[in-house]
Design goal:
This protein has 248 residues and is an alpha+beta fold. The chain is built from eight helices and four strands; from the N terminus they run αααααααββαββ. It is found in: Endomembrane system.
């Protein structure tokens, strides 16, 4: 039993370390650390104050699948020891329950991360960089407003995004496109930018033609203490904006 556990664990760790699984490595790095990784991190900080070399080793963020294999192997060996020495067969049930909880707790962050990819949500680990890049775009010369920005993951390590940029009428569209792409291209692989020029036209009131000889009636003025004035003016202007859509 002991030999089978050691051989299985060795084979598993060898495959995990030797095979370059980029999707799994990306998901393990981008997902939220699980409870086992957080516990090892806390232990590493505590041990690092006394033994710097060992503490640095524990601070490494190991693959969650490898940690899961280590935890299950230790659980199986512990249950085997209790059964062989004390004939405590309840340890087998306790080990199975522990392994079930270990699988759920370890794989939950990876499942949540993959679910967010399917829902096309914004990648959380890129949000600080995206916020900084969007602030830089808002400060560009000629940019009035950013709206409709949306970023999502299309594959492991590949991201897409779209944004609408409203600029002044005299702004150079190609120059704005180039600057926006320069600010966001380091985080977003497939970027779609729509530039909308601010072509608002202020309408003028049409002249009122009063026929000759027609006198407008004069309304009596109300008493001073009963004066009420209500002015409602509504003006609507609809201008078709000039937009340019470029998929970079």
């Amino acid at each position: 039993m002991l030999l089978a556990v050691v051989l299985g664990l060795t084979l598993h760790l060898t495959v995990m370390l030797m095979v370059d699984n980029k999707p799994l490595a990306h998901a393990a790095h981008a997902a939220t650390p699980n409870w086992l990784q957080s516990m090892l991190n806390d232990v590493g900080h505590s041990v690092g104050s006394m033994f710097p070399g060992l503490g640095h080793l524990l601070l490494l963020r190991l693959n969650p699948i490898s940690l899961l294999a280590l935890g299950q192997s230790l659980s199986v060996l512990t249950a085997k020891i209790f059964i062989d020495f004390d004939e405590l067969y309840l340890a087998d049930v306790a080990g199975a329950l522990f392994n079930t909880a270990l699988i759920c707790g370890t794989m939950l962050p990876l499942s949540i991360y993959c679910g967010k990819i399917l829902l096309q949500t914004a990648p959380e680990h890129l949000l600080p960089l995206l916020d900084k890049s969007l602030r830089e775009v808002s400060a560009l010369d000629g940019v009035l407003e950013l709206k409709g920005e949306h970023f999502w993951t299309i594959a492991f390590g590949s991201y897409a995004g779209s944004v609408h940029v409203r600029v002044r009428r005299e702004a150079d569209e190609q120059e704005v496109l180039s600057q926006v792409h320069s600010c966001l291209s380091s985080q977003i692989n497939d970027l779609t930018v729509q530039v909308v020029k601010d072509d608002l036209i202020i309408p003028t009131a049409p002249p009122t033609n009063i026929p000759v000889g027609v006198v407008s009636p004069t309304l009596p003025c109300p008493p001073p203490h009963q004066t009420h004035s209500h002015s409602h003016s509504h003006s609507h202007s609809h201008a078709t904006p000039h937009s340019v859509v470029v998929n970079l």
